[in-house]
Amino acid sequence: MTKTKEKASPKIQSLDFEKPLIQLKKQIADLEKESTLDVRENCQSLRQQLAEMEAQLYEQLTPAQKLQIARHPQRPNTLEVIQGLSPDTWFELHGDRMGKDDRAIVGGVIELDGKPAMILGTQKGRSMKENLVHNFGMANPEGYRKALRLFQHAEKFKMPVITLIDTPGAYPGIEGEQHAIGHAIALNIREMSRLNVPIISIVMGEASSGGALGIGISNHIYMLEHAQYTVISPEGCASILWRDASFATTAAEALKITAQDLYRFGICDAVIEEPRGGAHYNPEVTIASIAQQIHLGLIELNALDIETLKEQRFQKYRQIGAVGNG
Amino acid sequence: MMSLKNWFEQRRKQSTAHLDAEGMNRVEDAQYAKIWTKCVSCDAQLTKTDLRANLNVCPKCGYHHRISAKRRIKQLTDAFHELDAQLSPLDPLHFTDTEAYTVRQADAEKKSKLKDAVITGIAKTGQAIYALAVMDFGYMGGSMGSVVGEKITRAAEKSLAYNLPLIVVTASGGARMQEGMFSLMQMVKTSAVLGRLHERGLLYITLLTEPTYGGVTASYGTLGDLILAEEGARIGFAGRRVIEQTIRQKLPADFQTASYLQDYGQVDMVLHRHDLRQTLERLILLHQASSQQYPTKKALTLFNHEPVMVS
To answer: Which of A119, A187, B47, B243 shows a CA-CA span of 20 to 30 A to A250?
Structure first.
């Protein structure tokens, strides 16, 4: 229940396309150490240049660059967001009651604006050790069954459900197939579509395929500014359609998977702004924005009676598709 | 001038000249191809007529060849009213990989003579009337895009409107990548409407055929009250190659086959193609009688069917 104060935040790892910025920043920092007047003036113009460069770079990120941000190792993960949203109340609940606790999906009860909510999501670890515990956010059938159990618990006690999605997909393994991963996901989709409480899903980083859908059916889908939601990973798509995984950048463009694309398509209901450069530059601000968006969403959804709520969710998906007549 | 290589080539052709179905007369290549075919599994020489008469199951080794949706419907039903035949795919992402999606659509339509990868309708088999959707692997690997999702959803809605059981015959490599998120969301659309059938207590049966994978497995494919699979069909969520690459080990030969899945509790019955028709009809009638869920008059009149007596 007590939150341990984090140590001084570690240095932010820069991405390859940020290199020119980093170099310029370093140049400015070096110059600042000198104190002659003309050097400082020069510094001033470099700062101007940096600001312009930053604006240009971060406002015109390509889908592939956004994907790098979405997968940034320091991007706030599900457990960090949960703790940030509800620092004082977090009862993690474990297990599918059928033999396993798949920690690729974590979830439990929190308090939002003084009211209980069920929150769960796929968890990517911060270290290799954590990633082995959470299987890099790739769930097995047991994870989806645990999620279903938590959805039904939420329904029984009339709590809204918040799901946080950040997964490269369900885990493709032998046991997963033996234990009916397809059925586990299908059942969650069906049951979430008719759950008697509000559901909000937030795509935080990458959301891939059925692995994301298994916890992703909701009244509202929000996406962080650089998050991506896709039918297949760009790498997987490239290796199938181009027969060459190195076409991943092309595939990332072609698949139209950014928050902005999906907002345009009406699949995503709101885009949550990230600090410049991505959520990892300021996790606290990011979490505050997420909290604010959940707050607004729940006000809207709590005002609906159960039948309207379910109908809204059903129609949201019923209408998605591009179908011609002839 | 004839090179030595060509001479050998010609000799080889002459020496294996084809015979007609009776094995009596030599025939030309084109004519030969009209008569004969090979079992893709055991290589047995079969006449097309014999293979078809055996429902495209190899009489020698029992291999169930893939069949088109049209043939499947002929094999399963006595009468069939097609629905939504006019629905055709669009290109919402303006998608191009090594070829434009619109070109792939045109090729697939030409090859399969279908507008997309599923045929839906109201069917009658013996005494059973039901909504039926049959996927066709011949159209872009049976992939599920917006049209497949929409047609299956509408078939389910017809089953709600006419109080009919729903049967879906799957054959699909999964979601259609060329439609991106529009494809993925069809998994939700279809599963959500199946939730309504579930609430109404209408019977839903899935028949999984070779092959059924990905988004179809993880949505309507495995939501059946009863899940049947055709002998030899391979069924899974992730493809074999993806799993092998991930876990870096070879998978057993029977991995993801229908009977393997039955051993792991995922399939109610593994059926020979010869037994499908009767099994489906009997299952529908048994469940109808018990749940007292009968087709509406409107459904019955489609087939000028005598109303079923309600006790």
So the answer is: B243
Flag whether residue A210 sits within 8 Å of chain B, measured between CB atoms: yes
The whole-angstrom distance between B2's CA and the closest CA on chain A is 40
The first and second tokens of residue B254, run together, are: 């029977």
Q: Do the chains contact at A256 and B187, CB–CB below 8 Å?
A: no
**Which residues share a beta bridge with A115?**
A112
**Stronger pLDDT, A5 or A51, i.e. the higher one:** A51
Per-residue b or e along A290-324, where b marks 16 or more CB atoms closer than 10 Å to that residue's CB: bbebbeebbeebeeeeeeebbeebbebbbebbbbe
CB B124 within 8 A of CB B78: yes
Contacts of A248 in chain B (CB under 8 A): none
Q: Which of A144, A183, A231 to mutate to test the interface with B (most CBs of B within 10 A)?
A: A231
pTM above 0.90, yes or no: yes
Contact criterion met (CB < 8 Å) for A182 and B222: yes
**Whether the predicted pLDDT of B311 surpasses 70:** no
Sign of the dihedral defined by the CA atoms of residues B149, A305, A115, A147, in that order: negative
ipTM above 0.85, yes or no: yes
Q: How far apart are CA A117 and CA A94, in angstroms?
A: 16
- The reported pLDDT for the residue numbered B11 is 64
Partner A contacted by B143 (CB < 8 A): no
